[in-house]
Amino acid sequence: MKDPISISILELAIIAQDSNAPETFQKTKEIAQLADTLGYKRFWLAEHHNMAHVASSATVVLIGYIAGQTQNIRVGSGGIMLPNHSPLIVAEQFGTLETLYPNRIDLGLGRAPGTDQLTAEAIRKDFFEQAQRFPQNVTKLQDYFSTENATAKVRAFPAEGTNVPIWILGSSTESAALAAAYGLPYAFAGHFAPRQMIQAFEFYRENFQPSEFLDKPKTMACVNIVAADTNEEAEKLSTSLYQMFLNLIRNDRKGLQPPVDSLDDIMSEEERFHVNQMTACTFTGNKEQLITDLKKFIDYARVDELMATSPIFDHQAKLKSIHITKEVIDNINNI
């Protein structure tokens, strides 16, 4: 019998049009508390910089806030962009979080800057050199968490001996190779870069080396999910997501836009092509539609976990989408 699929949330803390950071933090807390109550497994936050409409730049601070406002859900990073940081500092920060919230903290690691090139250099002058050293820095981070590091001259307190699960995040087969070689769980960013997802999962499973952390492959796909009472309502709500990606390819930085009746007058044929490529892993519809579509995807991708991100403009509609999505996964697990 197949293991049940876990459902989690990636919250991008996007500031909606005519909103602000304080309101976004309040909404993020409410989303996390609802997910906690409903039995979602994880609530992850992502690191982005120099983006006026993304409120999660101080990712570790926000993780601590959300963990303190919830009871059972695992809270973590999707992810921390390791080349931006010293492995020692990351170990100290996540060791502190794990000490405060035992057995509830995840550390997802990425190698991209989470920003533009100029900002990456402002964060860390040697960013691009550190990006090349990503595998070595993952090892260094693991060393700081281990009890074997007790004899080292440089130690991370209170991280030493804490059991913080490390995930490798990625959007290519390169990240899959690292996760497989290190015997770590692997999460793929299907919500914005789905093209290589199936290939990356297959490579990861075929090349996985068991480790002290994991004895068999563990995969998670992050996808866009917009759920509503009707397919038509979900389709309209999803236009905010498509406008977000349209603004991304135009390099037009705006807050999350309200839904529109039609996208035809907003984007050109070429823009629609690029947006559709980036959003190919988007699931939209009512409960019945999503049960069909998500079950087909889960069976095809052979993932162990599913993480949903839902850029929905209206806060109450987003909370409802989170309710319906959990019902959908519960139904799939009972089929």
TrEMBL record:
Protein origin, superkingdom: Bacteria
Classification via CDD domains: Flavin_utilizing_monoxygenases (cd00347)
InterPro entries: Bact_Lucif_Oxidored, CmoO-like, Luciferase-like_dom, Luciferase-like_sf
One annotated Gene Ontology cellular component of this protein: cytosol
Pfam families assigned: Bac_luciferase (PF00296)
Occurrences of domain Luciferase-like (ranges): 16-244
An annotated Gene Ontology molecular function: oxidoreductase activity, acting on paired donors, with incorporation or reduction of molecular oxygen
Family statement: To bacterial alkanal monooxygenase alpha and beta chains.
Protein name, entry field: Luciferase-like monooxygenase
Organism: Flavobacterium araucananum
